[in-house]
Amino acid sequence: MNDIADRCKETAKICDFLGKNVNSLATNLQYYHGVLQHLNSSFMDCEQNLKYFEDISGIADAS
Fold first, then answer.
1. Mind spelling out the 3-state secondary structure of the chain?
2. Which superkingdom (predicted)?
């Protein structure tokens, strides 16, 4: 009977450890999702700026 109780305690420790890792992973995923959204927005802004300067350059060349 003692062997079963020891196994249950070890299983509980493993489950607790896995639960903490899942929470940490979820937090990190949320953080990096936010970082990727910010980068995506920055790249879109950069693309718009390049398009703007391309248009300006075309107008200047035509003058």
1. CHHHHHHHHHHHHHHHHHHHHHHHHHHHHHHHHHHHHHHHHHHHHHHHHHHHHHHHHHHHHHC
2. Eukaryota
